[in-house]
Amino acid sequence: MRIAVFGDAHAHAEALDAVIAAAERAGVDALWSLGDMIGGGPDPAYVVRVTRERCLLALMGNHDYAATGSVDPSRLGGATRSLELAREALGEDDLAWMRGRRPAARRADVECWHGGPRNPVWEFVGPSNADACLARQKASLGLVAHTHVAAAFTPGRRVKVRVGEPLDLRGGKWLLNPGAVGARVPPRRGWFAALDAEAADGAFWLELDLAAQLATWRRAPYDPRPGRLRARALGIDDP
After folding, report:
1. Which helix (H) or strand (E) holds 95?
2. Other CB atoms within 10 A of residue 87 CB
3. What is the pLDDT of residues 201-220, one digit of tens each?
4. I need a labelling partner for 238 at 20 to 30 A (CA). Which of 25, 98, 182, 197 fits?
């Protein structure tokens, strides 16, 4: 089974559409979303609807919980206004569906979290805590999002991600981050300005071949201008 794994769409329609179109062209069998469907971007209702319709697995992220009322939007810093708009834009049926999601799941021998194995909502997995997270992880393969950074960790080592080059997962324990679909990649400053710079390279997603035990990071280019114009009209563009 070949899976397209992605996270952190953050209410950006064009970026999500580009990833799904690329995954379809690659002939994947299923789409998995690791959460943060909303927050920051102008298209929360669209991204939630598409994720709901298309994804076999859909996790909740910290921004998603804010839209349902489970987290105070002020805890998310600069995304407060976009989260307030998301609450207004999302229908009760979509909110009810979101409330039924969880921030963690297990499919076959793959564990998935929005944040990390020690805190599935809020943990940021990086070089300083990857070994501790891998120690908590029970399955041979774990998937996380939340940091926006494409990454691959195995005990004692961070492996450099090379877009388009398969990573052999056989015989090891791995914790992978597909990178962000519709959010800036740290440490660039400015949410929308960073997206303008990154969109030509493309939104990140991970092609996961479970039978061959291969992981390949992909990027799907898109035009960021329509989304930024919508954001500007809503008053959530960069100041």
Report:
1. helix 92-99
2. 15
3. 999 999 999 999 999 999 99
4. 98
Would you say 100 and 130 are in contact if contact means Cβ atoms under 8 Å apart? no
pLDDT of residue 190: 83
CA dihedral in degrees (31, 35, 39, 40; nearest 10)?
A: -60
Q: Are 210 and 3 in contact (CB under 8 A)?
A: yes
Choose among 206, 209, 187: nearest CA to 197. Answer: 187
Beta strands in the chain (DSSP E): 2-6, 30-33, 57-58, 104-107, 110-113, 141-143, 151-154, 157-159, 167-168, 174-177, 203-209, 214-220
Half-sphere exposure of 228 (CA within 13 A, CB side): 17
Give yes or no for a contact between 52 and 58, defined as CB atoms under 8 angstroms apart.
Answer: yes
- Which tokens is 217 given? 């990071």
CB 41 within 8 A of CB 182: yes
Domains annotated on the chain, with CATH: 2-234 (3.60.21.10)
